[in-house]
Each structure stands twice: as C-alpha cells, then as structure tokens.
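Researcher: Go.
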Amino acid sequence: MLCRLWQKNPQTLPQTVASLYQVLVNEFYQWQAENTNVTATEQEPLNEFLTRLALTHRETGSSSAPISQEMIEDNASKLSLSLQLHWLRPMGIVTQLEKHNQYRFEDQTFEDYFAALGIDNWQYFLATETGKIEMFSEQWQHILLFWMGREDIASQEKEALIKALIDFKDECGQENFYGFRAYLTAAMALSEFRDCSVKDTIIEQVFVWALAEDDKSNLRRTAAREAIANIYRPLVINHLINYFENDSQPLQQRQRLNYLERLGKGNTEAIAALTECLQNAKDTTLRWQLAETLGTIDPGNSTAINLIVQGLEKPQKEQDYQKAFLTLEKIAQGQGQGVKALVRLLHSKPNPNLKRRIFQCLEIIGQGNATAIAILVQLIRSTKDETIRRQAAESLEKIDPSNPTAIAGLIKLMETTQKTSIRQEVVYNLGEVCPGNRQAVAALVSLLETNDDLYLRWMAISSLGKIGTGNEQAIAILEKLIEPEEPLLIRKEALDSLGKVDPRNPRSVKVSIQLMEETEDEEVYREIAEKLGKIDPGNPTSIKALSKNLQISRDEFVLRQVAVSLGKLDPGNLEVLMVLVNLIQSTNDPDIRSLAAESLGEVGQGNPAAIATLIRLLETSSHPESLSCAAKSLSKIAVGNKGTITTFIRLLPTIKDKDLGKQIVEGLITILPEKQMSQVVSQLRDHLLYRSLPDHSPCYQVMWHCAQHLSYQTFKEAWQQRGLPQKLSLTLQNTEPETKENNSSFERLQQQLKNAPELTSDQIIFIATRRFIDAENPAIDIYDQMLEQNCPVFEYGLPETLSKLRLYWHLLPQKSNKSKLILLFYDQGNSSLSAHLLNSLVKFKGIIAVITRQESSELSVFSPDDPQLGQTLIDWLQQKLNN
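Model: Structure:
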C-alpha cells in the first residue's frame, strides 16, 4: 500500500506516522474495492467497530491473546465485512458455535493505530492503577505515538501528556526508575509532536544524562544514549547545531560533535553549519574536530580533507601526526588527496615508526584507489630499501587483494634478502595477507624444505596454517613435519597448522596421541590435550585416548585440561563432569579450583551436579578468582535455576569486590526469567529505601534490570508487597536467632553421638538439611556431605538422583571398615522436607533416622524439641544395632 501511495503522490508523504496510517486506511479500502467495495457511508461505522475492538483487545494485556467472540458483541455484520476485507482473520477452525470462534487483526500495527483512535484524553495513558494498560510496554508506546500524531487531538492535550510524563514520579522509592522511563517516553513522543513547547528542554535533559561523566550515572547514561537514536533526528540535529553555536565548553563540544557524526550524515543543514563554523573557528584543536565531523557526515568533503592534509605537510610532533592519520582513516577513504599527501610524507624519509604508520594509514584510505595502487607498485619495483619494499608489498596486498606484483614482490624479497629480520617479517606477512594463494604456499613449502633456521621454520609453519586451507602441498609438508625426527617445537606447531588446513586429517589425531604418550613434560601434555580437543569433534579415537588418560593422570592441571578437551569432543560425557566436580571438591590449589569451575561452564549445561558444586563453591570459597569463575559458569549453565538465583540474591548485598559484584550481577541478569523478577524486587527493596545507591552497586543494577522489563503495576506491587521495616538492615539477614541455636544444638548432638562408647565402632553420617540447594532433589547435596565425612567416591559417577544415591548407599558397606553405617538427617529449619525425599528414604536399606518436626509413618522420626534427644537416639541405635 505504501508503494501505491508513493506512486500516486511521491512528493508529499504525511509528516507523522498517525497521518500516514490515516491515509493508508483510505488506500486500503480503495485497494480492496477490486474485490469488496465499501462505500464511504459504510467505512465510518466499520472503522468505529475496529477502533472499539482494537482498544478492548489491547486492554486485555496480551497482544498474542486472541480476540474472543465476547469482544465482538452483537456486530456480526461488521465482523463478516472485516473478515472479507482482511482487517481481521480467524484463528483456528471457524465453527457454527460462534461463541467459540477466535480472531486477530491481520496487521498488528493497524491494530495499534485503531486502538489509538479510541482514546479520547491524555489521562488514559497514566491510569495505570486500572490495570488495563501498561504505558511502558512496547505495545502501548506504539499506541501513545499514534495518539500523539493524531491531527484531531488539540495541542494542549498533547502538551499536558508530555508534561505529565516528564513530571512522573513512581511510588517505588527515591530512585524513580519509572519516572526516568516516562521522561524517555516523552522524548520519543516528540517524533509525532514536533511543535512541543518544551522539546528543547527535553532533548537537552536527555543529552545531560547521556554525557554524564560521574560513575553513579552509568546505567542512565547508557539508556539515554540509546534513547537519542529514537528521537526525531532533525530535532536532535537542530538542537545540536544551536547548542554548538552558543556553547564554548571544549568537552561538551567534542561530545556533541560525536553525536552529530552519528546522526547528521548527509544532512545539508548540519553540513552548512559545520562548514561555516570551520571557517570562523580560530582554535586549532576545535578546527580539527570540526573537520573530522564534517568529513564524517559528508564523505569526501574537500574542505575537511584539505585542512588535515595541510596539517600533515607542516613539521609537527609525533602525536600530531598520529591524530592526523586517525582523522584521514575516518574521513578520506578512497580519496586521492589523502593518498598523495601520505606518499609525499613517505618520500620525506620519516623515522621507522612513522614510516610504518604511514603505510597502515595508506592501507585504510587507499582501498580500491587506483592512485594508491599505482604508487605502491612503483615503490616495490623501484626502491632499493628492503624495509619499504616489504611494507609496500604488504600494503598493496591489503588494498588490492591478490595483486600479482604484491605477492611476487614479497616472495622475491623472502628469497633474496640477506637480512634474517626482513625474511622473518616477510614470512609473517605472507601468512597475514595471502589466504589461499598457491604461490605464497609454494614459497613457504620451499623454505621449509631448504632452510634449517628453527625459528624461521616455525614461523613458516604458522603462516601455512593461516593460508594453506585445503592445499595439498601444505598438507603434505605438514604431515611430514609431525614425524618423530623433527624437533618437538616444530612437531607441535605443525600439528596445530595441520588441524587448521585439514581439520579431519587422521594423522593429526594419531600423532597427537603418540606425543601425549611419549612426553614426560606435563606442560607439553596439557598443550597437546588442549589441541586434541579442537581436532575433529566426535572422533572416537580421540575420545578413547583422552578417556584412558583421564583414568591414569594424577597431575591436577593435566586432569582439568584432559577433561575439558574430552568434554568438547564428547559433549555430555559424565566422566568429564565427575572429574571436574571432584577437582573442585578435593583440590587444595585455588588456581585448579578456578580453572575447573570455569571448565564446568563449558561442559556442564543444565547438569544438577555441576550447578550444585558451583553454588557450594560460591558459598564457601574466599578466593576471588574461584568465586568469579563459579559465577560466570553458573550464568552459562543454570538459566532459570532457582537455587542459583537464590544464591546470587543472597550474595548481592554482601559483595565488596567490584569485579566479583559485576560478575554476580551479569550472571543473575542472564539467568533470571521475567516470572521470577517480582520476587527479586521484593527481596532487594530494602536496600534502596533510605539511601541512594550508586548505579554500579550490585543491588541497584539488578533492580534497574527488573524495572526495564517488568510492567509498572507489577513492579509496584512487588515493591509494596511487604510493609516498610522499622529499621533498615544493610545486609540480608538469612539466619534467624533460633537458627544459631539450632546450629549449636546440632553440633552438640553430633559430639554426644560421636563420644558415645556404645557407638565407637560404627560410623554415623550426619546430613544437615539446611545445606540443601535443591530441596526436591537433594541427591548431590547429600552426596557432598557424605564425601566430607570421608565416604568413598561413587565408582559409577555422580549420584544425580535419589535412586542413584540409594545405590551408592547400598554399596557403601562393602568399602567401609566400620561395623555399621548410620545415616542421620537433621532438619534444622521450619521449612518442610519434600515428600519426594521422605518417600525415597523409605526405600533406603539400613539404619536411617530423620530428626524433624514432620511426621512419617514409614521412617524413624525424632523430634528436635526432645530435651533428651541425644540419649533417645543412643538408646534407639543400640536397639537397632543389637537386632
């Protein structure tokens, strides 16, 4: 339809989106007249029906929800006509029982337009307490924009809504998250209401936020910068020009010129204003900034380029040259003026560093430029300076890929130069600029066959790995270089390059395994294991070799690397997970623990054992790197996991290390689903009640994230869910006073049972239920506590379920030197043990007791309130042991 409209009248499109859609509606009826003719008299009531229907549907709160028959009311004829015209379409199968039929608008944007026609006054958008609308949702912001662009709405009404938005104060603390969002909504609305009396004030305030330099404003700064891109561009450009002409603060000028560069490309008013400013400016720094901006918004602008070129041709400091190069790279790409200036500077015999920088600049601005290509070809053929020849050939290959002169020049220089350093640089260059070039590959192969310089051969092998993909000559020489007669350095690099040029080469896997078996150097072993993990994922030979080494290796660093490589070759390998989990639990080396935690993030996706291990590491470790690695890995493998979310929230207010706080925040934001955000708001609210936190504070960042995704009504309900505290605690109190008492009771009970002479030959395994992360399936939590009490590792992997834990428990007596094993659960809190756990424990054989206030007819249950609990247990255990 837009194409039809453009063909009819290409000169005068409507100025606002609302006006455009008003015209498109009329155009739609004309287009449909070919099949269904609707007179002007019929169109008006049909539009009114669509308006009521669209607004009613949008008020339901879900754009994906169908339009029910109830919303249609008694408008069967209008429904039929809407379906014929394809304003609406049925969902599913239409039946004769009309009350079950469902519909939707054919186009969602037209639905938003019609909904906006049904709103009579601006107060409607702020009536959030009704629950019908959510002003901050994308859907309702579209409707608000359509309303703002309506020509039948008085300017006073629009002004009133803008003022209400910029003055909006939410009821969720002093941070006013939604007030800020309302202000940005007002800025966006200027696109449809360009004559707003306070438009300059609004745009300026958004720029104040966007350009703020203090650490406290980072989140607002980022949001404001994103909002600027959504404001009507001509308004922003005019504002920037007016500000620039009337303000002389250098920092503000530079920052606003940056925005003009992004928004003003091709804008004639901006180009004219900058040209005039450039002619009048006296300050050298300002003139350079103006020239850079002018050249950016008007590519190839000769005035801007000439100013920079003139600066290059005068003796300057090194830093001034560098600034000129950066500006030319930005505004003079493909322009002959800049190329010629650089060549003139090259002939002035600059120092080596400056010479190198000239070539780098030439590579960028000379792309596809015939003058630059011709000059570089001439330099290669005529200059006797080998350094210039090499740099010229390298630059020529970059600006004119596969240029025969460039490649031939580099190869000839490699073969004829007497300087080792030049030859090394050429070998490196060939690997950087000649991908797939057969001449370059042949030259490197020839060098490898004739040269004995170890370092040069190593570089040539590295370059072959970059440019020799699929080349038979390259593959053949690399297969030869991995044989045992070559030095280890050469064999390792050749293996690496062979894996790049021929990823599934069977020799790579075989030789890698041989090297692992031959070497006694643990560092080399780890290096080969890492490379083996990258060669041919799924290769059964590699998997078998790494699995074997996983069983025999004793070095923890090697174990970790072998496990990671095996995990990449064979995703989901439980043996890998067990090795990494055991490393985290058993090692005394914090670096190993950190590396293993990081590796779990690569291979432990969704695995409950991996998640539980990382959570426990977060709760117990004091090593910053281990904590950071655990948090990062959890953000990858524990999306939506309640235990992880709870742990992150508990840690947030207590974190003092800035980097760790950032990692926890990023992790929580990554794994937190929207349906759990309300709970997070309620839990963290108290930390924002009575003081203003900087927005780099972990609690602030998470609350900000929730405020950007939750509706205002949902956020407010979560904020006000609990009454205000009499006194704010600056840290979350996770442990009530009675819990401390319970802790000491549990410790006293443990000591009493361990010291009982009647039980000295038996082992009591104490399980504290307060340490459960996953209350429904605490198998890993129980297993961890058993390992802590010197129980042996389960030989069949990790007992991830209570069924597997039961098997482990039944096999345990065979490996114990104690007469009897006793499993004793202690429920220290007021929360109930899950029915799944209690029902599963019934199936466990042996002596098992549960100390809890819950009742169970099938388990031996003891009350924690029994004042003689210790003696009661001793008497019961004696009876069980004697039976």
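Model: Residues 648 and 668 are 6 Å apart (CA to CA).
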